[in-house]
Sequence to fold (604 residues):
Amino acid sequence: MLPFSRVTIIGLGLIGSSLARAIRAEMPTVRVTGHDASPDVREIARRIDLADDITDTAGAAVTDADLVVLCVPPGAMGAVAADIAADLPAEAILSEVASCQASVIAAIREVLPNATLVPAHPVAGTENSGPEAGFASLFKGRWCILTPPEGTDTTAIARVEELWRRLGADVETMDPAHHDLVLAVTSHLPHLIAYTIVGTANDLEGVTQSEVIKYSAGGFRDFTRIAASDPTMWRDVFLANKDAVLEMLQRFSEDLSHLQRAIRWGDGDTLFDLFTRTRAVRRSIIEQGQDDAAPDFGRAHN
Amino acid sequence: MLPFSRVTIIGLGLIGSSLARAIRAEMPTVRVTGHDASPDVREIARRIDLADDITDTAGAAVTDADLVVLCVPPGAMGAVAADIAADLPAEAILSEVASCQASVIAAIREVLPNATLVPAHPVAGTENSGPEAGFASLFKGRWCILTPPEGTDTTAIARVEELWRRLGADVETMDPAHHDLVLAVTSHLPHLIAYTIVGTANDLEGVTQSEVIKYSAGGFRDFTRIAASDPTMWRDVFLANKDAVLEMLQRFSEDLSHLQRAIRWGDGDTLFDLFTRTRAVRRSIIEQGQDDAAPDFGRAHN
Fold:
């Protein structure tokens, strides 16, 4: 049995548009309705036939839904929840895909205290944004983390879990605060570091921008990929998951100072020991299917 | 005309073995001789037919060469130069591929003050190591930076340049100190940051190693690739290019503190402005052919 028959997606960027495509690919009888606050995005979504219906208002998108998934940046979640409050059917399940959960859940709860809320964060993405960047297989083999608040109806949780399994994701459940800590280290800190180093490289006097770009294959270009991610979404993530991000940043800075000291004092053993340990982490990620074993991410060399 | 007819490669890891393969692929009449300090590596090199001859000593490898390329870690360059000093023909050109040049050139000069030295650093690589990790097309479309010491014979420089062009590389010439500064930002700092963050993530109490690996697709896994690079080589690079690396690290730390403060005080504009600028850097790298335009580095999603 299908977990849902009428799914509404609010926010048609990379994740929302991938979700629409994935549902239509895997469950073609589900009716998919979409809405985006941007008229330009709505027009593109209609042109590329992203959903059965693209509505001009958020309210009109949800009136008939049995699942509503909010796919907007974390900072916009509360306002969108308010927008749909008058039209959301009482029996509909509300979900959202934010990369930081505690503050987003609180913002939604404030305007929709009685909605059945089952957040589901798919740990997947690319550096591209917008309705044309999405694709149906984005979630296959990736993890989707559900963070239902305590006391959430278990049938509702099971239905959302079933939806994501059908899209090819593995599903895990966590409490929101732990989710935010895990994502702070596996996603938010890496993005912050990447944004920082790309900014640093861009601002030097002794090395020109043109040199940075020409010789980026030495390692720098790897960082530019995630530093090309959506600025609005990432601004919101860092502000919304402030405490966990600052905690991870503190750890990172301590570790970096430790290495800095090892370099300054010529302590090669400290460097060598760390560099040997980090190699093992890469091996585990490949063994568990979370990255490709092909060298250089499988980039073409020709 | 071929720039060289008898090329010797000392050190048959990723770069040395790729160089052997590339020369045989592009200039099949050149005689390639190889040597590696490790008997295991020599055995593999013979088994996979990496060169026309694999010698048991470094000295035996160079006696007949018109070009000798040292492809060993920076910290081993001086010792290898000493090893070949007695056998290096007076008219042979000596080259090396180190990622940091000033200290390596000094170490070689100390034992071979009169050799014609034309260092050539190909800005290319993968996270894999060893004679079986190399491939002939590694240098195609990448930059190779020559850093000949002042007063080097211009014909020698031109011949080394011609060799790398024939292997598919674009060639640039820089003075060694500037090379080391450029590489500190485009390669050494990224590697140091990647090693650090992978170590940080590995050492947390609140988040398990298993969670870090499962949810690594949120960004972390990108860092694990370069943090899987050869520990010996990278230890040597950081120690050999200490001053430039520490300078870049200082810049990076200042910029990171600036962002940390923006997050703490909820200054979204500072974050948004940086995240918009960094996007443009990625675009330039793709436009200039230094990375693939395919989302997510072209990783398979299925």
